[in-house]
Amino acid sequence: MFRNNTSRALERASQYAMKSDFCAIFRQQTDRLYLLALLLMAAPQKAEECLVGSLGDCIEGNPVFKNWARAWSVRAIMKRAIRMAAPLTQERRENTQPATGSGMELTPEAAAMIAAVTHLPAFERFVFVMSVLEGYSDRDCAALLNCPASAVAAARLQALKRMELREATQNPEVYELPFSQELTEVEVA
Fold this sequence. Notes:
Blueprint: H1 2-15, H2 19-28, H3 30-41, H4 44-60, H5 69-85, H6 108-118, H7 122-133, H8 138-145, H9 149-170
């Protein structure tokens, strides 16, 4: 009986991610995971809090297969950021203080991109990061954000328009299209 329990424990350990697996992921990919948290939270201190809390969520959460541990870590950061920031309940306004890399060594282009993303209104920022940068489907984003998929599609389109408008105003010689009109809400059926 003891041998049977031991073999089951060893089998489980070989299939499921353990504390050490998540710690290794967070240690090896600290910059990438911190950047994800920064883009979602739009504030360095909140990003750090989100990152550390997400590691705890991974370690204390439900068992997950080892080969899913990296994706699970990303999802944990997104879920914690959603709980912390409540992007659906935040006022639909732009941030006045866009985040920077907070000590990360960045190229000017990367710093500008971080500032552009963190300058988006909260819901659009979350949708942009989740769907465009992380590749989540509208349906997956909607499930995590607890909103209709049509709202996700509309927010992504709005975010992309804002990003394009921002790029156009910073590099007017590249864009010759008249982007001066106000962005309008997009209805998605």
